Amino acid sequence: MFEIEHASPRVGTIVRTTKADMLKGTYADEINRLLTERSALVFPEMNFTNEEQLEFASTIGKVFLVAGEEIQKISLDPKVSKVADYTRGAFFWHIDGANDDVPAKATMLTAKVLAGDGQGDTMVANTYAAYQDLPDEDKELIAGLRARHTLESSQRMINPDPTYAELQRWQAYPSKSHPLVWHHRSGEKSMVLGATAYYIEGMDFEEGKALLCRLQEFATQPQYVYRHKWTVGDFLLWDNTGTMHKAAAYPLDSNRLMLRTTLHGEESIS
Ligand code: OGA
Ligand code: MN
């Protein structure tokens, strides 16, 4: 069984299939194709165990270790996650590993504990679709532009008044220069934006900030965004290469817990 239902015309698809087929990789090619086309795929109440999540992940790519772990606990509780502080950065539109040489191909979450009603939804924006719809003047304007992506930029959003030691820790992480437009091997183009984009290289700082803000506002209009309202056991998989994503706000003392696996990047941004 493999039935799909699009959540909206441009982004997000609900997939109904069996756990057995997910683990065997029966529809792995189909899933990989849909992932790029639809940005976000939901497998309702798949209820994967950790082992099953990893088994499925390896049918569509290679599992990427984050801090040596195949599965990360995504939680704001420092008792549960060593990087609870950084996790607050997920409240802002971002690309996972935008500061890495080759950003993750895809990220997947299984919902274990939910935040309150209407809180902690996960949102994925299709930046292929947004790029397609950009007015021609904007396509020309951004064709040759590059942004500098830094950890400082995303961390400032959750800690706008850092100590010097904190700032030095952020700045110790190498920054990356990325084009605003990603020319994919497929020939398609998407936009590279998000919280890590600090400034536009070679452009007046404020003018660059205004452009980044305007493009991000354009790319996150409702027609490009899939918003997932979680049920425990849901499995959400998103393409990390032609999208941005974020968690809708939820309380800092929430017990919300997601188990996350990331796939090795296969294409550098160019
Ligand atoms: C992530 C992430 C969003 C969420 O795990 O990379 O951004 O809704 N998560 O928890
Ligand atoms: Mn993320």
Brief description of this entry?
The protein has 270 residues and is α+β, with helices and mostly antiparallel strands.
- Shape label: globular
Please report the total strand number as a whole number.
16
- Count the DSSP helices: 9
Oligomer: single chain
Q: For the CA atoms, what is the radius of gyration?
A: 18 Å
Largest sheet data: 8 strands, mixed
**Approximate helicity band:** 25-40%
Give the mean pLDDT: 97
Structural class: alpha+beta
What is the chain-wise order of helices and strands? EEHHEHEEHEEHHEHHEEEEHEEEE
As residue ranges, the low-confidence spans are none
Present as ligands are: N-oxalylglycine, manganese (II) ion
Q: What is the terminal separation in angstroms?
A: 37 Å
The percent range for strand residues is 25-35%
Could you give the topology of this structure?
Layout: E1 2-6, E2 13-17, H1 19-24, H2 28-38, E3 40-43, H3 50-60, E4 63-64, E5 72-74, H4 84-87, E6 106-113, E7 122-126, H5 127-133, H6 136-142, E8 146-149, H7 151-158, H8 164-171, E9 176-179, E10 181-183, E11 189-191, E12 197-200, H9 205-219, E13 225-228, E14 235-239, E15 243-247, E16 257-263
Parallel strand pairs: 2-3
Antiparallel strand pairs: 1-2, 3-14, 4-16, 5-16, 6-14, 6-16, 7-13, 7-15, 8-9, 8-12, 10-11
The protein binds N-oxalylglycine (OGA) and manganese (II) ion.
